[in-house]
Amino acid sequence: MTENIASSAHPHPGSCTLVGAGPGDPELLTLKALKAIEAATLLLVDDLVSDAILAYAAPSARIVHVGKRGGCKSTPQSFIEKLMLQAARAGETVVRLKGGDPFIFGRGGEEVERLRAAGVPVTVVNGITAGLAGMTALGAPLTHRAHAHGVLFVTGHAQPGAPGVDWPLLAHTAHAARLTLVIYMGMRHAGEIAQGLLAGLPAHTPVAVIEHASLPTQRHATATLATLPATIAAQGLASPAVIVVGDVVRGIAAAGQNRQDIAHLGPMAMAG
Predict the structure, then answer these.
(1) Are 243 and 190 spatial neighbours (Cβ–Cβ below 8 Å)?
(2) Is 73 a catalytic residue?
(3) How far apart are CA 206 and CA 256, in angstroms?
């Protein structure tokens, strides 16, 4: 199917909706997301979307997996955008189904720009992001009047050829402004990230690593910034996971989720 054929066959284009599937638990879908999934004739699906969520698609809907995972063979972004354009111009009701939220490290901004430039109607349905869901599942907040005045979502994975995050500068800012850091896609570079953050945050700063947030397979470990790399190695934690840095992590222990005293955080801290 070419774009010219698609356009001539259907003078009135279909539509495309970018849907946040949330962290994985289907019960965390919004009603709007559920309705969009049920109405789709074509779903272009990320790797981290669970089968339980895809079960809501209509039996007649086509499901195409276009996963993008750091360090793994991935579907090129340009090809995904081309598929969306072709299908929408062919009159399809397209849902681009993404883990978490489309506008938080989901390349949703790039896709919306491409679709709008091509004149294809596009809407966005938010989803619960993994950093929020993971901490909530452990009974701890991301902000707290006594401990954190704000939260920063940041990627630990730099685009090839582009400068990465200035971790020392970010650490100084977080310390001065009392901010929680939620780091996505940072597991491969956790050692470098921890070393950079130590330039501006105390070594005893609490850290949580949450793997498979909200799913039955969720695990977590708590550490300090100084012991983060050793904790990840000792517990065998891996992607997909988020790293949460800040005093709010102490709320995990307060919620009774840790089996070890958070005052003795270290490489053998509890894995949930």
Answers:
(1) yes
(2) no
(3) 16
Catalytic residue among 68, 98, 135, 187: 68
- Exactly one of 46, 84, 98, 101 is catalytic; which is it? 46
Residue 252, number of CB atoms within 10 A of its CB: 24
Its pTM stands at 0.86
How buried is 195 (Cβ within 10 angstroms: 0-12 exposed, 13-18 middle, 19+ buried)?
middle
Q: Helix, strand, coil shares of the chain as percentages rounded to 5?
A: 35, 20, 45
**Active-site entry in 84, 98, 101, 185:** 185
CA distance 209 to 98: 22
Q: How many CB atoms lie within 10 A of CB 11?
A: 8
Does the annotation mark 35 as catalytic?
Answer: no
- pLDDT digits over 170-212, tens only? 999 999 999 999 999 999 999 999 999 999 999 999 999 999 9
Task: List strand residue ranges (DSSP E) for the chain, in order.
Answer: 15-20, 42-45, 62-65, 93-98, 122-125, 150-155, 179-184, 206-211, 219-224, 241-245
